[in-house]
Amino acid sequence: MAHLSLKQLSKVFPDGTHAVDQITLEVPDGELLALVGPSGCGKTTLLRLIAGLESPTAGDIELGPRSLQGVLPRDRNVAMVFQGHALYPHLTVFGNLAFPLRLRKSPKPEIDHRVRQAAAMLGIERLLHRKPRQLSGGEQQRVALGRAVVRHPACFLMDEPLSNLDARLRDETRTEIKALHQRLDATIVYVTHDQQEAMTLGDRVAVMRDGRILQVAPPREIYRHPIDAFVAGFLGAPPMNFLHGQIRADAGQLYFEHSGRRLAVPAWAAATLAARVGQDVVLGIRPESLSIAPTGTPPANRLDITVDLIEFVGAALHAYGSTNGDTIVARLDPAATVAIGQHHALEVDLDRAHFFAPPPRGSKQPGANLCPTHNPPPLARSRL
Fold it and tell me: I need a labelling partner for 223 at 20 to 30 A (CA). Which of 6, 106, 132, 196 fits?
C-alpha cells in the first residue's frame, strides 16, 4: 500500500464547471478515507482523477514516492470498484477474478493462488465456477471487490459500491468491506453520498461540497465539531435542527431569541456570543439533544412543539413537530408517550447545542461554527 497525496488538484470541464476546485488532501498509508457529499459535488470526478480516467486541469497526484502526472490508468497501480459491478457476463467468477492478472501475463500458478486467496478472503470459493447471472447482487459485489483485491494495488478506489444493493445487503457488505480493510491494511478512498456509510466505514471522513473539501476529520470529531452549518446538517440521521434567531441580553444573562421564545445561552458559549448581542445567529440542535421535558423544566431550557408525524425505528422514536412555523425533529426514547396533534414540551440539552453564524446575505455559503472547539458531553444513554 502507499501514501496518497493530492496537491492543489483542480478539474474544470469545457462548459466551465469547476468539478474539483484546488483540493489538497493527504491519505496516509493504510487509511480508509470516506469521501461524502451531495450528488454533483465532485466526488466521483475526484476519484476518476486519481484513477487516471480524467486529466486534471491543474495540480498533481502522488502515490507513494512518484507523481502520477502523465501515467496511464493501467500503470498507476490502483484498483477501482465501480457503482455497477462491471463483471464480464461471459466469464465465470474465476475468470472475472483472474482477468486483471491475465492482462499482466502473470504465471498461471500465481493467478490460481491469488484468485483462490481472494475468494477465500471474501467467502466466495463456492461461486468460482458460476457466471455473474447466477449470482445475487451481494455476491456480484463481492466478486467485484475480489477482482480489485487480486491485483494487490497500492490504493483502492471505491465509487459508491453499495448503492445498487438493498438495505440488508448494504449492511452486510459494508461490514465485509470494513473487515477487508482491516485484514489488508489497505489505503482506500471510498466515495458515497450516504453519511451513515461514511461514518461507519471511514477512519476519517471528508465532507465535500461544490468541488471543495470543507472538513476532514475522524467520524466522532467531525460529528461533534462540525466546521460549519452544512457539515453539521449533512452528517446525522435525522439531520440537525436549525433555528434562526438573535442573541439578547437581559439581567446579565444571554439568550437565544426565536420568534419571541428564549433559550438560555450556556456558559461555555457566553464569552463568544457576548459580542453578538442584537445580531442574527443560527442555533443547531441535534435530534438526540431533545427529550420530553420533565415537570418544572425552566422555559429557558424548553421548546414547545405540536407533533405532526411519528416514526418508530426500533431503538428510538422520531417525533416531528412544529414550533412557531419551524420544523423540529426529536429522537426520543421508544417508550415515550407522544401522539400526533398533541402539544409537548421538549427539554433542550444546551450543553450539546451548536451556534453558527448566519450565511452572508445573498450567499449560498454556510455559516461557520462560532464555537468550534466546544467539546459537548457524551450523549446520555437515557436519551436514546
Answer: 6
Q: pLDDT of 315-368, one tens digit each? A: 899 999 988 778 899 999 988 888 899 999 999 999 999 999 998 776 667 799
Peptide bond into 238 cis (omega under 30): yes
Which pLDDT score is estimated for 137?
A: 83
Residue of 218, 223, 145, 141 lying closest to 181 (CA atoms)? 145
247 has pLDDT over 50: yes
pTM (two decimals): 0.89
Burial grade of 281 (CB within 10 A; 0-12, 13-18, 19 or more): buried
CB–CB of 318/238 below 8 Å?
A: yes
47 with 6: CB under 8 angstroms? no
Q: Report residue 360 as a C-alpha cell.
A: 452572508
CA distances from 161 to 99, 136, 355 (A): 20, 15, 36
Helix (H, G, I), strand (E, B) or coil at 148: helix
Please count the CA atoms within 13 angstroms of the CA of 281 that sit on its side-chain side.
Answer: 29
Complete DSSP assignment for 240-281: PEEEEEEEEEETTEEEEEETTEEEEPPHHHHHHHGGGBTSEE
